Amino acid sequence: MSETITPFHIAFPVDDLDAARTFYGETLGCPEGRSSDEWIDFNLFGHQIVAHYKPKSERAEEHHNAVDGHAVPVPHFGVVLTMGKWESLAERLKAASVKFEIEPYIRFKGEVGEQATMFFYDPAGNALEFKAFADMRQVFAK
């Protein structure tokens, strides 16, 4: 991964902006950027994520795919962190009593692409995955 990585942008629905502000701002520690009565920008480890208000409605049935013996929620988003930042975030989430969908663990142990991963939901039900690689050259390894 020798190229310079630029920040990604993702906008996602939330049904309670105050809950999103607390979860992303306080629980995850994301600095808040611009906002309005309809949306909030957050800095998620250098990436721009935007929580857009969408009234609560019936949610589509959840879907999961099997990965390394776990049921991974689809869709989901997150960030690849350094191992140290991933470990710190995992401890922060545990201290905040965040319920994990998949507890923090090492996936593909001893294989190409070995990675630390964890899954959890925000208050609006958006699935998040944060992962880390001991060797960042393995991010796209086959």
From TrEMBL:
Top-rank taxon, per record: Bacteria
Record Pfam families: Glyoxalase
Keyword Oxidoreductase attributed: yes
SUPFAM superfamilies found in the cross-reference section: Glyoxalase/Bleomycin resistance protein/Dihydroxybiphenyl dioxygenase
Transmembrane segments: none
Keywords for this protein: Dioxygenase, Oxidoreductase
Residue ranges of every copy of the VOC domain listed in the record: 6-133
Gene Ontology molecular functions: dioxygenase activity
PANTHER family, sorted: PTHR39434, VOC DOMAIN-CONTAINING PROTEIN
Protein name: Glyoxalase/bleomycin resistance protein/dioxygenase
